[in-house]
Amino acid sequence: MRSRRVLRPSPEQLLVVGLVLLAGGVVVGVALMPDNFPFTALNVPLLVGALLLRPRTLVWFVSFVIVMVAASAALQDEYTTRTVAALVVLGAVCVFVIVISARRSVLGIGGRRGESMLVDLRDRILAQGTIPVLPDSWLVESAMSSAGGSPFAGDFVVATTRDDGQRFEVAVVDVSGKGEAAGTRALQLSGAMGGLLVELPPHRFLEAANHYLLQRDWDEGFATAVHLSVDLTTGSYEVRTAGHPPPVHRSAGSGRWQVIRSEGPVLGLIDGATYEPVQGRLASGDVLLLYTDGMVEEPRRDIELGIDEMLGVAEHLFRNSFDGLAERLAAKVGSRDDDRALLLVHRR
């Protein structure tokens, strides 16, 4: 004997029924108490629907609300200036909600679902930059801030370990544009670069990233990047840059900063570009700083002056503690009108 399948209404169907009953209840209230029950209460189900319903369902529901508005208008004993103004405002809200629905129809999702997707996308970008667990003798911190304070930015960090945790790989990337305009490209590129960083040897990473960007054919299809590969046992490292501001190395022995002059073409512009490494070694107490141009560039100021300012502030902050230094440094220097990213690598 076959069991009957019970069809249960979806949460959205239950919501639509509830909103229809609410809107109908408003009209009934207007019919029973035309002088005391405001028909503008139809704004409540209308705005709830705008927030929670899918675009296609929302269009039909707004059409129903418009019918309810017309019914409420017909039930009025007299038309005062206040009544006409309220009808005009309610009609304008209906038109506004329809426009919102038309814009959302491109994605096919409602407001709450769209917001949750954006939150998820933001979290994915930030998760790419999570620093993996490293030996106690190493401290790695990152800090990121976008133009205007938005969580979506064109700067991001991707990091991983390989060789059974003996090698640390990280890339700091600056996608063309800034803020939300660059956020979508940064999301796509961070996912791709995260995979390339895990799967490819260090000498092929930037070359593969360059090829990937060329294949995307974006209107603003370029990015700058700096890639660091560190042997966590010996402290030996390789740095490769692609049109990116140069990293800086602080020697604990001398207390001096050295700019690492590594040069390579911007990602996404030249097919077949190669990226030569600059090698060095982090001794105990040494520090490496990797950063994007938002940390050191400002209008009408040379980038070398920006680097000097950043290093001067960093030297002052070092006197307190290395813990949290990346966040403290990013908060004090750089342009507030540009995205900023900073990575600190310290061998204790």
Topology, pairings included?
Blueprint: H1 11-32, H2 43-52, H3 55-74, H4 81-104, H5 111-128, E1 138-145, E2 155-162, E3 167-175, H6 180-199, H7 202-216, E4 223-231, E5 236-242, E6 248-250, E7 257-259, E8 278-281, E9 287-291, H8 303-318, H9 325-332, E10 340-347
Antiparallel strand pairs: 1-10, 2-3, 3-4, 4-5, 5-8, 6-7, 6-9, 9-10
Describe the model.
With about 350 residues, the protein is α+β, with helices and mostly antiparallel strands. It has 2 domains: about 10-110; about 115-345, PPM-type phosphatase domain (Phosphatase 2c, domain 1). It is built from 9 helices and 10 strands. A 5-stranded antiparallel sheet has the order 1-10-9-6-7, covered by helices on one side. Helix 1 packs parallel to helix 3, helix 3 packs antiparallel against helix 4 (about 80-105) and helix 8 packs across helix 9. The longest helix is centred in the first third of the chain and has 24 residues, at about 80-105. The chain is elongated and about 90 Å long. The model has no long low-confidence stretch (mean pLDDT about 85).
Which features would summarize this protein structure in a list?
5-stranded antiparallel β-sheet, 2 domains, 9 helices, 10 strands, 18% strand, alpha+beta, Phosphatase 2c, domain 1, 348 residues
Question: How do you describe this structure in short?
Answer:
Residues 135-347 form the PPM-type phosphatase domain. 44% of the residues lie in helices and 18% in strands.
